[in-house]
Amino acid sequence: MAESALHVEIQPNAHTIHIGEQKINIVSGNYISSSDQATLIQLLQPILDASHTRDREKSPPNSACFPGTRIDVIRTIVAWADSTLLWNTHVLWLHGFVGCGKSAIALAIALKFERRNRLVGSFFFFRNAGDRSRMTRFATTLAFQLAAAIPEVAPLVRKAVTEEGLLGSSLVAQLRRLVYEPFKAATKRGFLLLTFLKGPFLIVIDGLDECEDRQDVQAFIDDMLEFFKKNPLVPLRFLITSRVEQHIQAHLKNKQVRLENLVNHCSRSDIDTFMTTCFKEEIKRNPVIAAYIQQHGDWPTKEDKDTLVDHINGSFIFAAALFRHIVDHTDDQSTPMDRLPRTLKMNPGLDTLYIETLSRSQHLPHFPDIISTLALIFEPLPIIGIAELLGIKTFEVVRVLVNLQAIIHIPGTDDLPVTMCHTSLRDFLTTESRSGDFFTPPSYHLYLLYRCSTLHDDGQRPDTTAALYSISHGAKHIDQFTRLPPTAQGPIPRFPQTLDTLYTHILAKSENHLYFSDIISTIALFGREPCSAVRVGRLLHIKTFEVVQCPSSVFESSLDPNVNEIHMNRWLANWTVMDAYMLLKCIATYAQARMNNARPGVAHALSLNIVNWGGSQVKITIQPYVQPPAT
């Protein structure tokens, strides 16, 4: 039987060749195969939606430079990146206020240098977006992108990542071994000589202020500057964008860093171009505006448009939000012609716009819960996930959100995440002096924890979006709540109002399960030390299967009863000592009741001795029940 012909496909000017089922990426005459990429993904576990190529609808920020705008600042950054290393810095920090377009410019630069084959990495931080708001996988993500962009680096990265303990080491150690040293080694070997003649390579880091790990951010900056100080001729540059935050400013205000204030590049003509084009496109789509213009002439008038541009004062996020507010298709009580004069009377700034927009849905059922949930969740949820988490209907979430599209991105389907147009909305909602009646109290974390606990009741599906969220982030809500001072912990106008109430509620839901109080008391009194189902069963003189049948709403167990992995569920296990004491008080009530009606071979004596309470030391002893001899 003759072999089938091997199919080879090469696209003109392409960087990818398909040979049969194999895909090969070509960079500067070298290659990295798709199988090598798969291996690196498995080893490095990069964040695949953190780069400039992510789906911005699903993974914000969803911002890009409007055609014909930002020409001056882009030209400035490109000139810096193209200049010789002998006369310029390795790092440029582009800073500016909320909404002035930093992310859009970062995206434009990344795309431009990708086309030039000089972009070796990009990372777009975004607050409350899981790993994209942390430094945990920052180094491995950049290392994967570096290896994909420069195949000569790939074997060096692969060798480094297999070093014992590296992935558990500090951020600084990971960046050194996975990014800086492989890049430097490839340069020394001469592999990059031809490309180096085109200019230095570039890494784009956007929204560094959105990263929660402030100490790691400082360590990253300090180590990066130290590396370039010792290696001034390494052909690598970093473009970093952020707001002016103290923990960043104190470290980036350095002679090794070029500072660019975006405010100095905010052109009035850019805003004018943006607004003029947006209104022209809306006139084509909106028959109401077209009919108005036929009868009354131009709209908006040049005078109104100029006033609006002055009112915006250089903020693209404010410009986009105001435009969405003016042409809002969900407001059937007024027309764009009615809303424009009211918009011109708004106080400059986003807060007034946020208040005006939020007030449209304020009267609707579940509004406070939906808005507070959006403000405090640790990862964006789709509409169906928000509904599941709050225990309400999907249409009730849609009803509230549909009026807020000027400030919140509403996806086209219920399974895509709902995101804020800008993270400043979260700051607004969580700052009482700014938001007033729309304020989300930090004590609301307790209610979200309670809602997480209900997702694991009997009969609930374990694989829903909200259930998976509760497993990943439930413990973070109790952590945020327990960090609050007592004066900020409540009450909130819904159940539960205290941790005692929450713990009792969770335990009471399951008290009718056979041997529940005995099992849960034993596991809780073991503290943070996990114990196997077999061990618990032997201690209580009950069958192993009776232990593992205890409901998962309270604790988790391995599928293998011999594995040492029974422990309190994540949101119950993340205690301070005081939290543990409150839970033990609840458990003691159940244990005492069960001992008063002791069943031979099941009940057990619990001896709880709290030693040196102020020093946070708890001593617990557990004694198996011994049935007295028959008389």
From TrEMBL:
Signal sequence residues: none
Residue ranges that the Swiss-Prot or TrEMBL entry lists as coiled coil: none
InterPro entries named among the record's database cross-references: NPHP3-like_N, P-loop_NTPase
Record keywords, A-Z: Repeat
Origin superkingdom: Eukaryota
Domain named Nephrocystin 3-like N-terminal: residues: 88-243
A Pfam entry, by short name: NPHP3_N
Name this polypeptide is given: Nephrocystin 3-like N-terminal domain-containing protein
